[in-house]
């Protein structure tokens, strides 16, 4: 989708609808919040023209990958949650079973991906 002020809402609604209609409906609200935070970071902190959201749902977990074409550095959670802004990844860190980020260089194109995994309460998540 285009990296625009509406991107976080579009991604949030997409992920929420996907999960509410399947076996992981209990994860829908956490997934909506996490994807919204990550996509909003792309809008606020990159010059990427597009943002891609990939959702993988299996029996044990939901994995979401948010990828941009921004040349900037990968995000780190802030050390102090009481500072101005920067709390989005603390939210993801608190809700997700695991999360991380990676960079991929293909020819002249560089992509950054932030991913997170959610598992149902009492569920077992495969390590990423």
Describe this protein with a few key phrases:
128 residues; 4-stranded antiparallel beta sheet; 4 strands; globular
Could you explain the architecture of this structure?
The chain has helices at 7-20, 28-45, 88-95, and strands spanning 51-57, 62-68, 98-106, 109-118. The two termini are 26 Å apart. The chain is globular, with a radius of gyration of 14 Å. With 128 residues, the chain is an alpha+beta fold. The chain contains three helices and four strands; from the N terminus they run ααββαββ. A four-stranded antiparallel beta sheet has the order 1-2-4-3. It is 31% helix and 26% strand.
What is the compact description of this entry?
This protein is α+β, with helices and mostly antiparallel strands. It has 3 helices and 4 strands. The chain is globular, with a radius of gyration of 14 Å.
Number of strands: 4
Poorly predicted ranges: none
Strand content: 25-35%
SSE series: HHEEHEE
Distance between the termini: 26 Å
Strand order of the largest sheet: 1-2-4-3
Query: What's the assembly state of these chains?
Result: single chain
**What's the story with the biggest beta sheet?**
4 strands, antiparallel
Label the overall shape: globular
Blueprint (SSEs and pairs):
Elements: H1 7-20, H2 28-45, E1 51-57, E2 62-68, H3 88-95, E3 98-106, E4 109-118
Antiparallel strand pairs: 1-2, 2-4, 3-4
């Amino acid at each position: 989708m285009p990296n625009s002020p509406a991107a976080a809402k579009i991604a949030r609604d997409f992920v929420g609808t996907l999960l509410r209609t399947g076996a992981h409906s209990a994860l829908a609200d956490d997934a909506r919040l996490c994807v919204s935070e990550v996509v909003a970071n792309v809008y606020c902190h990159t010059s990427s023209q597009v943002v891609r959201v990939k959702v993988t749902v299996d029996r044990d977990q939901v994995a979401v990958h948010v990828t941009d074409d921004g040349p900037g550095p990968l995000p780190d959670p802030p050390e102090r949650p009481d500072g101005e802004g920067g709390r989005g990844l603390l939210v993801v860190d608190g809700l997700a079973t695991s999360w991380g980020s990676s960079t991929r260089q293909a020819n002249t194109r560089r992509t950054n991906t932030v991913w997170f995994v959610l598992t149902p309460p009492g569920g077992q998540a495969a390590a990423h």
